[in-house]
Amino acid sequence: SSKQAVRIVEVGPRDGLQNEKQSVPTDVKLELIARLADAGLRDIEATAFVSPKWVPQMADHADLMRRLPRRAGVGYPVLVPNLKGLEAAIESGASEVAVFAAASEAFSQKNINCSVAESLVRFEPVMAAARAAHVKVRGYVSCVVACPYEGPVAPQRVADVAARLHAMGCYEVSLGDTIGVGTPATVRAMLQAVASRVPVSQLAGHYHDTWGMAVANVAASYDLGVRVFDASVSGLGGCPYAKGASGNVATEDVVYLLHGLGADTGVDLGRLVDTSAWISGVLGREVGSKVARALRAA
Ligand code: HMG
Ligand code: MG
């Protein structure tokens, strides 16, 4: 068919749960991941090989990776901040990882305890070791619209960091509106700057929904040719080093939007909504997706 294929990277088990205050058992995470795969998601960011002192919720990373349901066609990328993280990830069976940088100095310091330039230097040996192990590396840029500490971030700064990640070998660069303040106007300006340096086919949109603009920002990005979006089931999450930031755009909302625009995501919306209701129940909260609520009421 002529349907546009869109790849959704489900980040709920990582971005969604990293900031969760209550302890989430590894068994619950594994069941969440299995249900997401059953719903048709093919890229599920499973965990982060970061310091357990910094992000206690991801401390079970090695155990979780070893117990993941291995399925044909389903990839489980994990975050790695440095060589130590990469080595631990590979040791646990990871075949895809993501490095994460920022377009803002203050956020880089708070999140990974080094400057933007230092982080890029730190990623070089990570890239080399990953290449040697045939591990795919994705790159993230945080604060692509604004920083919680510095305010607005110039699109050119985002383009500079994205171009560096791409040049060092990241197969895709995911653009994070970490605090979810972007609108289609600011996201478009940012994307146009980045797309002049990195092919749009190698960009992904990673939009948090703090101000309720994330679905609009996905639509605007889709219009500009972006065909990969990160999303979190039920809109779970927030970044521990971005105060007040809420979760990613809900995967259900992105799937409904994209199917409405005539795109193909491979995701079964009904099964995804069931998963959203299930994890919300386990965590003891309301479903964070309007589409999920509407479908369940219908
Ligand atoms: P540091 O303290 O500067 O690290 O932290 P260090 O190299 O000086 O080491 C200090 C200690 O940490 C040592 O242990 C190391 O072994 C250990 P000690 O000797 O004290 O016992 N260590 C590690 N342990 C486990 N795994 C590792 C690791 N590395 C060192 N990989 C570091 C620097 C980067 C490690 C730390 O700042 C960190 O882990 N930060 C992670 C923060 C994080 O996970 N943030 C959330 C993810 S990013 C995000 O959410 C944004 C995104 O969604 C996009 C968007 O929305 O914008 C991706
Ligand atoms: Mg994020």
Question: Quick one: how many beta strands?
Answer: 13
> In percent, how much strand structure appears in the residues?
15-25%
Distance between the termini: 30 Å
Please compute the radius of gyration using only Cα atoms: 17 Å
Task: Output the number of helix runs.
Answer: 12
Order of helices and strands: EEHHEEHEHEHHEEEHEHEHEHEHH
Unreliable runs: none
Helicity, in percent?
Answer: 40-55%
Unique ligands? 3-hydroxy-3-methylglutaryl-coenzyme A, magnesium ion
Q: Could you give a short account of the major beta sheet? A: 9 strands, parallel
Overall mean confidence score, pLDDT: 96
Shape from CA axes? globular
What structural class is derived from the secondary structure elements? alpha/beta
Strand order of the largest sheet: 3-2-12-11-10-7-6-5-4
Outline the structure in words.
The protein is of the alpha/beta class and 298 residues long. Helix content is 43%, strand content 16%. It has a 9-stranded parallel sheet with strand order 3-2-12-11-10-7-6-5-4. Helix 2 packs antiparallel against helix 11. The radius of gyration is 17 Å and the shape is globular. The chain binds 3-hydroxy-3-methylglutaryl-coenzyme A and magnesium ion (MG). Magnesium ion binds next to loops. 3-hydroxy-3-methylglutaryl-coenzyme A (HMG) binds next to helix 4, helix 5 and strand 7.
